[in-house]
Design goal:
20-stranded antiparallel sheet; mainly beta; disordered N terminus; four-stranded antiparallel sheet
C-alpha cells in the first residue's frame, strides 16, 4: 500500500498540469459553493469534533450523515496543510464537493487497502481516478496544489474556467488560521439561526462566515455577515448604534429564551425596516416608542411576551395614559388592558410574532405586553424572586464570551436549541440537550456588515462544596500509553495536560478539554515530561527522552533546534534535567545502561564532567539534591550508590555497599534515604555513614519522600510517615506524593477495581474518595480558582480530569 501511495504522488508530480491564472490554493475554492469548510489542522479537527458533545448529537441528523458519508474518502488522505472543502448541490440536487490544499509526499499516506488509482485524461487535465468500494474521487496537481472532486466535470470546470473568486477569497482571508475550523455559508443552506420562524436566513443576510473553537462541552463561533441587498433584514440596523441588551433582566428562567433588538434611535431603525415591511402612517406615529432603545420577545410554551425597554419610563408611561383600564394588581404590580393588540406584530414584523398583545404591565424601565395575565404574572414572579435569566450562573457564564451591546441577541434554552436544530436539519430527531441551559447568538452592526458571535455551551451542573466533579473526559485516537500529567502553560499561567497514546502520538490538551495539537514521536516517553526555559524569556519548552532520542518541543508542538538529538544506543532511564542555581543553565543527563552522558540545553556535551561509566547497569535516573549549600548528583547500580559533585567526582564515599533497589534516592531530614532490594530503609549521612532500618516492607515495594515526609508501599500496605494503612486487596499503582498549597497528599490507584484513592499526610482518606480511574494521577491547581484538579486514565483510550471542590 505504501508503494502505491508513493507511486500516486510520483505520477501526479510528473503529470502536473500546464500553468493557468490560478496560482494559489484559494484560487481553486469553488465560488458558487453553498458551504466552504476550512480546516487548519485535520488531526486536531477530527479529535476535537469527535469529543464535542453537541457535534456528537448533530451526527444523528441526515444532513450530517450525508456530508460525512460523501466525504469519507478524504479520511484516507493525510492532509497536513490548510484544507478547503467546497460543498454544493449538483443539477440532480445531490451533494457534490471539491477540495484544495498544498501538497507534499505525506499527503499520500492513504490509509486503506481497499483503494485503486488509475490515470485519466480530462479536459486539459492529467488527473488520477481514486476508487474505493463506495466512492470515486478525481484529483489533479498544479504548482504543488492538489485539487480534487467527486465530480470529474466539476474538476474540469475548476481548472478551465476563470471564476470571479475575489469576493470569496477576501472573506476566506479574514478567517483565523489558529481556529479549530472555519465555515463560510451562503443563504441557500442555513434555514435560520433564529427560534422565530419568521426570520429565515435567506431574508436576513447574504452569507455568514465564522471561526470555530471547540472543546468537549462548548462551541464558540466568531465571524461576520454581510449583504449588499437593501432588502436584507441585517441592514435595518444601518446608521444605528447597538445598545446594552437588558432583556435577560426581565426574562423568566423557566422561559424558552428571548430575542433582543437594540438601536440608539427608533425612528432610524423603523425607517429602515419600513423599506422592507411597510407600515401605515398611523402605526408608525406612535409616541410609545419615542424613548425605546430595545425591544424584544420572550418565548414561552404557552404565549410569548413583547418587551419594550425605555430610557425615560415616566414619559413612555404618559404615552399610555389612554391604556389604564386596570385588570388586576398582582404582587403589587398593576396589569392593564391594551386596546391595540396587533400593534407590535404590525409595527415590528418580522422580529415580533405576538399578534394579540391585549394586556400589559410595567416593571422598572420595562413595559411587558402579553395575550393573557398568566404570562405577565410569571414574569412578575420571576423578577421579584430573582429567578430571571440574568440571575442564573449559566447565563452569567455565556455572557463572558459575548459583547454587552448587540443589535440582535438571541438566547435560548434546551427546548429552543432542539427546535433550532430540528428546523435546520428538517428532522424530528430528539437530542440530548438538557444540559445546554443557555445558548446564545448575536449580531453587532458595524458600518456595512455585522459581527457575529455564538456560544453553544453545556452548563456545568451545580457544584456543592466538598464534592468531586468530572470536568471532562477526552477520547484519544488510540489507547492511552502512559500516565497523563499536568504541564505549565506559560501563556495563561494555568496548566494543560500531556499524554501519549500507543501509536506514540503525544497530545497537548487544554484545561477545558480541547486538543491543542498532536505530535508523532519515535517511541514511548521514558518517565515524566519536564519543562525548561531555553531562551530565558519565560516561554517554557517540554523536554523528555524516548529510547533513542531526546526531545525539546515548544508550546506549539514544534521541535526546538538542534533537538531531537538522536542516539545509536538505547537510553535506559528517564531524562534527568537539572538547573543547579536556578539561572536557567540547564544540564541534561542521559543514561545508557552504565554510561552517564551530560549535555547542555544546546545538545552539546558539557566539558569538565569527569564521570564516565559505572561497572554495572544504572537502575535509577540521576537526581539533584541540595543539602545546605552543597549540591549532590545521586544515582545507583544494584551494588553501589554514587554521590557526586557537579563535575562528576565522588563527593560522598558511601562506607557500606548494599544491594540497592531500583527506587530513587531522596533527601530526608538532611540525609540521603533510599531502600535495598529486600525492603530495608537505608539512611546515608553527608559523611557517608549508613544506617539500615526496617519499615516492614518486602522486596516488592515503592518509595517516595519529601524532606520531612516518607511514604512506602508494598502490595496493599501503605505507610505514610508513621501511619500504617492496610488497603483492600488489589493491584495498586506506586503511591505518589504531592505537595500542593502547603499541604501533602498521597495517592494510589487500584487498577483492579478502578478506584483512585487520595490521603492526607496523616493517612486520612479524603472526602468522596475513591473515585473512578484506571491509572496513577497527577494532582495540582490547573486553573484560576482555588480548587485542586487531578487527571487520570479512564477507559482504555480516554483521559479524565476531576475537580475537588
Amino acid at each position: 500500500m505504501k508503494h502505491l501511495c508513493y507511486s500516486l504522488f510520483i505520477i501526479l508530480l510528473f503529470s502536473c498540469n500546464s500553468k493557468t491564472s490560478k496560482n494559489t490554493v484559494e484560487d481553486f475554492i469553488y465560488s458558487k459553493a453553498d458551504v466552504v469548510l476550512t480546516i487548519n489542522n485535520t488531526d486536531n479537527f477530527k479529535s476535537n469534533t469527535a469529543n464535542n458533545h453537541f457535534i456528537e448529537q448533530l451526527s444523528k441528523t441526515k444532513p450530517y450523515t450525508d456530508i460525512t458519508n460523501t466525504l469519507e474518502v478524504l479520511n484516507r488522505f493525510n492532509f497536513n496543510q490548510r484544507l478547503y472543502i467546497s460543498l454544493f448541490k449538483n443539477k440532480e440536487d445531490s451533494l457534490d464537493y471539491s477540495f484544495t490544499t498544498k501538497v507534499n509526499d505525506s499527503t499520500f499516506s492513504l490509509d486503506s487497502l481497499e483503494l485503486t488509482n488509475t490515470a485519466v485524461k480530462l479536459k486539459n487535465i492529467n488527473a488520477q481516478k481514486i476508487t474505493t468500494k463506495q466512492h470515486t474521487l478525481y484529483v489533479a496537481l498544479q504548482n504543488n496544489i492538489l485539487v480534487g472532486s467527486n465530480n470529474k466535470q466539476h474538476l474540469e470546470y475548476l481548472f478551465n474556467h476563470k471564476e470571479k473568486t475575489e469576493g470569496l477569497k477576501k472573506i476566506i482571508a479574514t478567517q483565523d488560521k489558529n481556529a479549530s475550523f472555519s465555515v463560510y455559508t451562503n443563504n441557500n443552506v442555513l434555514q435560520s439561526p433564529f427560534f422565530n420562524p419568521d426570520l429565515p436566513f435567506k431574508s436576513f443576510s447574504k452569507y455568514l462566515t465564522f471561526d470555530t473553537e471547540v472543546n468537549q462541552n462548548k462551541l464558540v463561533l466568531n465571524g461576520f455577515t454581510k449583504s449588499n441587498d437593501s432588502s436584507s433584514l441585517i441592514n435595518v440596523f444601518k446608521n444605528t448604534l447597538p445598545q446594552d441588551n437588558q432583556l435577560a433582566q426581565i426574562t423568566p428562567s423557566n422561559s424558552n429564551g428571548f430575542l433582543s433588538i437594540t438601536f440608539d434611535q427608533f425612528t432610524t431603525f423603523k425607517s429602515n425596516l419600513n423599506t422592507i415591511y411597510p407600515s401605515d402612517s398611523v402605526a408608525i406615529d406612535q409616541p410609545l416608542f419615542n424613548n425605546i432603545i430595545e425591544f424584544g420577545e420572550i418565548y414561552t410554551n404557552s404565549s410569548n411576551a413583547v418587551v419594550l425597554n425605555s430610557l425615560d419610563i415616566i414619559e413612555t408611561n404618559e404615552a399610555l395614559l389612554s391604556q389604564k383600564d386596570l385588570i388586576e394588581t398582582f404582587r403589587g404590580v398593576s396589569i392593564f388592558k391594551f386596546t391595540k393588540p396587533k400593534l407590535f406584530n404590525q409595527l415590528l414584523k418580522p422580529f415580533v410574532t405576538l399578534d394579540n398583545a391585549s394586556n400589559y404591565c410595567i416593571i422598572d424601565q420595562f413595559l411587558i405586553f402579553a395575550s393573557n395575565t398568566e404570562t405577565l404574572e410569571n414574569i412578575i414572579v420571576n423578577y421579584q424572586n430573582q429567578t430571571t435569566l440574568n440571575d442564573r450562573d449559566y447565563y452569567t457564564e455565556i455572557k463572558k464570551g459575548l459583547s454587552s451591546q448587540a443589535s440582535v441577541l438571541q438566547v435560548i434554552n434546551p427546548f429552543g436549541l432542539e427546535q433550532l436544530v430540528q428546523n435546520n436539519s428538517q428532522s424530528k430527531q430528539k437530542f440530548d440537550f438538557k444540559n445546554y441551559k443557555s445558548s446564545a447568538l448575536q449580531f453587532i452592526y458595524d458600518t456595512d456588515f455585522a459581527h457575529f458571535n455564538a456560544i453553544i455551551n453545556q452548563s456545568k451542573t451545580s457544584i456543592s462544596n466538598n464534592s468531586i466533579t468530572e470536568m471532562f473526559n477526552i477520547k484519544l485516537d488510540h489507547d492511552v500509553l502512559n500516565q497523563p500529567q499536568f504541564v505549565k502553560n506559560y501563556r495563561s499561567k494555568q496548566m494543560d495536560i500531556m499524554v501519549q497514546d500507543v501509536s506514540n502520538t503525544l497530545y497537548l490538551i487544554s484545561n477545558d478539554g480541547k486538543i491543542i495539537w498532536k505530535k508523532q514521536l519515535h517511541g514511548p516517553i521514558l518517565g515524566q515530561i519536564d519543562q525548561l526555559d531555553i531562551y530565558k524569556n519565560g516561554r517554557l519548552q517540554y523536554v523528555f527522552a524516548t529510547q533513542n532520542r531526546v526531545y525539546v518541543i515548544d508550546r506549539d508542538g514544534n521541535d526546538v533546534s538542534p533537538f531531537p538529538k538522536k542516539f545509536d544506543d538505547n537510553i535506559t532511564q528517564p531524562l534527568a534535567v537539572f538547573d543547579y542555581d536556578n539561572k536557567k543553565k540547564y544540564r541534561l543527563f542521559v543514561i545508557q545502561d552504565n554510561n552517564v552522558l551530560l549535555y547542555d540545553a544546546k545538545a552539546k556535551p558539557v566539558p569538565g564532567f569527569k564521570f564516565n561509566k559505572t561497572e554495572k547497569t544504572i537502575n535509577t535516573s540521576p537526581k539533584h539534591i541540595r543539602i545546605g549549600r552543597k549540591d549532590y548528583l545521586v544515582f545507583k547500580t544494584n551494588d553501589k550508590l554514587h554521590i557526586l559533585n557537579r563535575r562528576g567526582k565522588t563527593r560522598v564515599k558511601v562506607k557500606i555497599d548494599l544491594n540497592w533497589s531500583d527506587q530513587p534516592v531522596f533527601e530526608y531530614n538532611s540525609n540521603f534515604i533510599t531502600s535495598t532490594t529486600d525492603g530495608k530503609i537505608a539512611t546515608i549521612t553527608e559523611k557517608g555513614n549508613v544506617s539500615v532500618g526496617s519499615l516492614n516492607i518486602t522486596d516488592k515495594h515503592t518509595l517516595a519522600s519529601t524532606t520531612k515526609t516518607l511514604i512506602s508501599q508494598y502490595n496493599n500496605k501503605l505507610n505514610i510517615k508513621h501511619h500504617n494503612l492496610e488497603l483492600d486487596f488489589g493491584n495498586y499503582t506506586p503511591a505518589k506524593l504531592f505537595y500542593v498549597n502547603n499541604k501533602i497528599y498521597v495517592s494510589t490507584t487500584d487498577t483492579q477495581t478502578q478506584k483512585v484513592l487520595l490521603f492526607d499526610s496523616n493517612g486520612v482518606l479524603q472526602d468522596h474518595f475513591p473515585v473512578y480511574g484506571t491509572s496513577a494521577i497527577d494532582l495540582d491547581n490547573i486553573d484560576t480558582d482555588n480548587n485542586l484538579e487531578f487527571v487520570t486514565k479512564g477507559e482504555s483510550n480516554s483521559v479524565l480530569v476531576y475537580k475537588i471542590n
